[in-house]
Task: inverse folding
């Protein structure tokens, strides 16, 4: 991955965007995409929508959600400790001992997540699962009044773990789910800006996917596409304690994950397979026999229905502060969909 593209990816990953508070990351995304497209806009929900060739009759939508999981202050006790609820879902045990970045109207406030020391726990306490009510955020305040001068109930926060390159091909971050998808949409739009298109392409960095694929619902209604592809991370099965019989086989570095299932239009999938073979792009196939819980769900059932595809980016350790993805997988997703859309005819019948 070239340096400019990788620098943008790192900036996007490091910029906080818990669901409902995506604007800082959305600004980074819009700045990167806006210089290459005909139109770029936002809506009252927070979705960022970039458009190429807007006058074409056939509309194709690309969607990757830019929100990440996080926490929100629910209570400040008399001693100045903060209690939180989850924005999205994660294992509370992973939060113990983490640093956090609290997003306030006046700027970021640092904090740490504390818990009773193991030395003070009774044997039965050590065996219990960590619960949100048994951990707290410490911002160093001497009491409630000092804490309230710094933060407020309702302020969101993210775990303070920046991305890091593990190898030339592997990168770890708290937010690859799904800034990897939003990044992919941005780079496809930039690539397509230099190609002659027969169709209109709308690239969307959607919001609030972690709260129930909300941004994809509202943006798909506005765009009103004929077809679309959602990009999200998917569970890799190439690490210990995974069951390939349940997950299927999916490895980092082996290419895009084209998913098959009720949410995905088989004609669109067939065209993706043909494009991959034509351009010698390796890919992997997994099945999703039920609703996927991704933006593809919302796009598919928009208005009178939309022919929808779902391309996954293999991801280890989903919904943890140390998710891992392959840069070459992302590059191959960009190449696959860029070629697919550049070759897309002015009209294509995806009806079954």
Result:
């Amino acid at each position: 991955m070239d340096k400019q593209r990788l620098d943008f990816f790192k900036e996007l990953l490091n910029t906080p965007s818990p669901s409902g508070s995506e604007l800082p990351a959305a600004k980074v995304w819009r700045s990167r995409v806006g210089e290459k497209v005909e139109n770029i806009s936002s809506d009252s929900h927070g979705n960022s929508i970039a458009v190429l060739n807007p006058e074409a009759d056939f509309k194709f939508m690309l969607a990757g959600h830019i929100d990440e999981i996080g926490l929100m202050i629910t209570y400040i006790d008399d001693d100045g400790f903060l209690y939180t609820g989850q924005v999205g879902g994660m294992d509370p045990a992973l939060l113990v001992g983490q640093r956090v970045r609290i997003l306030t109207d006046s700027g970021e406030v640092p904090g740490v997540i504390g818990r009773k020391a193991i030395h003070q726990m009774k044997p039965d306490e050590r065996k219990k699962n960590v619960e949100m009510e048994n951990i707290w955020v410490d911002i160093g305040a001497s009491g409630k009044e000092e804490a309230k001068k710094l933060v407020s109930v309702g302020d969101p926060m993210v775990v303070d773990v920046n991305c890091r390159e593990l190898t030339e091909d592997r990168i770890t971050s708290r937010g690859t789910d799904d800034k990897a998808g939003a990044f992919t949409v941005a780079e496809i739009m930039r690539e397509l800006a230099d190609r002659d298109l027969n169709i209109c392409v709308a690239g969307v960095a959607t919001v609030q996917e972690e709260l129930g694929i909300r941004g994809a619902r509202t943006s798909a209604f506005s765009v009103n596409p004929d077809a679309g592809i959602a990009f999200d991370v998917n569970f890799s099965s190439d690490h210990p304690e995974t069951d390939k019989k349940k997950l299927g086989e999916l490895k980092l570095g082996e290419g895009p994950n084209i998913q098959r299932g009720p949410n995905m239009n088989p004609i669109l999938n067939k065209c993706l397979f043909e494009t991959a073979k034509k351009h010698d792009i390796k890919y992997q196939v997994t099945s999703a026999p039920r609703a996927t819980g991704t933006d593809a769900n919302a796009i598919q059932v928009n208005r009178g229905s939309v022919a929808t595809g779902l391309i996954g980016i293999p991801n280890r350790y989903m919904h943890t502060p140390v998710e891992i993805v392959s840069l070459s997988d992302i590059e191959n997703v960009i190449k696959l969909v860029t070629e697919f859309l550049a070759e897309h005819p002015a009209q294509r019948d995806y009806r079954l």
